[in-house]
Amino acid sequence: xxxDYLSANYNNETPTENSSSEKQKAPDFxxxxxxxxxxxxxxxxxxxxxxNFWATWCGYCVKEMPEFQKAFEEFGDxxxxxxxxxxxxxxxxxxxxxxxxxxxxxxxxxxxxxDLSAAMVYGASSLPATAFINSEGKLVHGQLGMMxxxxxxxxxxxxxxx
Length: 162
What we know:
By secondary structure, the protein is α/β, with parallel strands linked by helices. The protein is built from five helices and seven strands, in the order H-E-E-E-H-E-H-E-H-E-E-H. The strands form two sheets. A five-stranded mixed beta sheet has the order 5-4-3-6-7. It has a two-stranded antiparallel sheet with strand order 1-2. Strand 3, helix 2 and strand 4 form a beta-alpha-beta unit. The longest helix has 17 residues, at 59-75. The protein starts with a helix and ends with a helix.
């Protein structure tokens, strides 16, 4: 479901608006916080949400993270940021990801997709992948690949408007 949405609405630069009838309910998933507590995406219903799937081995993920940090600092009170590490336990471990976040000084919330279920639900077959969900819990936009600062801010604007 998520992959179909991300693929059908792939747009690398220009924010677009889908009509209300085209918007799908964002699929729910469970990831884990730093302490290992389960966190459901539905826990954030009623607030706009930015979901970003990333890994430390992904060069484009690493390159776009400063923009997400900047956006989190600016909009973190209005928008939920779910920076989801695709933690397969082999190529990417929770320890490596946590160390990377600490070394870089990122303060946005990081969650770990330990069973890769969130990545599967959203069809994050390549990284990075980002989804924007409005306060009604509807997918507004999905993007596979690196996000430009203009696109990131444009889509945050869209989910704040709705």
